[in-house]
Design goal:
The protein has 439 residues and is an alpha/beta fold. The strands form 4 sheets. The chain has a 10-stranded mixed β-sheet, with helices on both faces. A two-stranded antiparallel ribbon has the order 4-5. A two-stranded antiparallel sheet has the order 11-14. Helix 2 packs across helix 12, helix 4 runs parallel beside helix 18 and helix 16 packs antiparallel against helix 17. It is globular and about 65 Å long.
């Protein structure tokens, strides 16, 4: 399959003479709107200072220190509100498309991606995600499909789509075993026969010593950061990807997605969101340290869209309480499962207090208990609404919004991302670097 725009992009950039960054690290916080950055700043301040938080100055986070500008995210239709597929397509190709599209245009013709271009230029490629690795965002960098929902076909394309006789991605780390080991096809075996090293659990990551390599560490997405026993999930995978991709004679392109920030936003789960933001921040710190040690590298961080319409302050109160959020030790989904598993209502209320440290009124207790035994979604929605109520967190939707998203950058030519840009302009600038001959 020949991708639209791939050869024109090469031709357009072949005469460039500036010294482009050799390596590109592209990090996408799925759903990470600007309020998420603000919330994380105050949340981290609370975590660090505890009861002294109100008497200490609020310090910058890594997001604040690297902030360069803002980006628009609208898709190629009249909605103005993008989904992750169209957003990732714009960020991977520099071309807008319709919601649900995986790097195809409105006529369903494949659009060349920066990783496909990098492969053609002899660079190495890697993808890291806390979701399944064939989810919308990573998929848009290495594959093409008219629908993000065709997860098996997208997984197949990770192996079947070739440039210079090789799969596009040299390193693939995240979740998604269910889509790669199926009754109709075992893609893991095919990758291993192609020479890829493989790991299917965290303890086996050390066996990945060279590229090409693939690690699928869960059936679908990885566990939520707030629930997992594996610390620093995304940072660990980012560090491993950088180890595997280095050195690369002609450089590399690595895309790292903080996938589940978006999932928390869809659930309107503020405690979940802050844990995922912390997981993503730790991965950014790993990438930043790599840039410091390898100055011929550019780090760019952005989001595909905002999820949930989060606000800090709600119900007419000039107040937001991150200490409430800090005390919540499980996602809304896990809280619902634990409360449903309790033998009695009394045990359920006890477990609620253990997981949230939020003391409910009698009316709120009855509201919570009334959902026990029903669908997890019903109990989860009540649980996260109570956390939102006590922390004064507002949400306007369970979907996405059209809010602009932040752009952060660090390293070589990072000033090129200063100010306001469309999401396609970020991709076009990176494509320009990737297609430029090193001086």
């Amino acid at each position: 399959m020949r991708s639209l725009f791939l050869l024109p992009l090469l031709a357009l950039s072949s005469t460039a003479v500036f010294a482009a960054p050799k390596n590109v690290i592209y990090m996408i916080g799925d759903g990470m709107g600007p309020t998420y950055l603000t919330a994380y700043r105050y949340y981290q301040h609370q975590v660090i200072h505890g009861t002294d938080a109100r008497t200490q100055p609020v310090a910058n986070t890594i997001f604040d220190d690297l902030l360069k500008g803002m980006a628009s995210t609208y898709p190629d239709d009249d909605t103005l509100v993008t989904d992750s597929a169209a957003g990732a397509t714009a960020l991977a190709t520099g071309v807008k498309s319709f919601n649900g599209a995986i790097s195809v245009n409105r006529q369903h013709i494949p659009i060349g991606t920066m990783m496909q271009l990098a492969k053609q230029m002899g660079k190495a490629n890697g993808i890291v995600a806390s979701s399944q690795v064939n989810h919308a965002t990573p998929a848009a960098f290495v594959s093409h499909n008219v629908s993000r929902r065709n997860l098996n076909a997208i997984a197949d394309m990770y192996f079947d789509y070739r440039i210079n006789g090789k799969p596009v991605a040299d390193v693939i780390l995240g979740g998604g075993t269910d889509y790669f080991v199926r009754e109709d096809r075992n893609l893991v075996t095919e990758f291993k026969n192609e020479g890829y090293q493989y790991a299917d659990n965290w303890q086996q990551l050390d066996v990945l010593t060279r590229k090409p390599a693939i690690a699928l560490l869960d059936k679908v997405g990885l566990p939520a950061a707030l629930n997992t026993k594996q610390p620093h999930q995304l940072a660990t995978l980012t560090e491993k990807a950088l180890q595997l991709l280095s050195p690369a004679e002609k450089g590399f392109v690595l895309m790292v997605e903080g996938s589940q920030i978006d999932w928390c936003g869809h659930d309107n789960d503020i405690a979940c969101a802050m844990a995922e933001m912390h997981d993503f921040a730790q991965a950014i710190a790993v990438a930043k340290a790599y840039v410091d040690a390898n100055p011929d590298t550019l780090l760019v961080i952005t989001a595909d869209h905002e999820t949930g319409g989060m606000s800090l302050g709600a119900d007419g109160k000039y107040l937001w309480l991150p200490d409430v959020i800090q005390n919540v030790t499980a996602t809304g989904r896990k809280i619902a499962d634990e409360l449903n598993a309790a033998n009695t209502d009394e045990a359920a209320l006890k477990r609620w207090l253990e997981l949230t440290n939020i003391k409910l009124t009698a009316e709120e207790q009855q509201l919570l208990l009334a959902q026990r035994g029903k669908e997890q979604k019903d109990l989860r929605e009540v649980a996260v609404k109570l956390v939102a109520k006590y922390s004064y967190t507002g949400w306007t939707t369970g979907g996405h919004t059209a809010a602009d998203v932040p752009i952060m950058a660090y390293g070589k030519d990072s000033e090129a991302f200063q100010g306001f840009m469309d999401n396609t302009a970020i991709a076009r600038q990176l494509i320009r670097y990737i297609s430029t001959t090193q001086q």
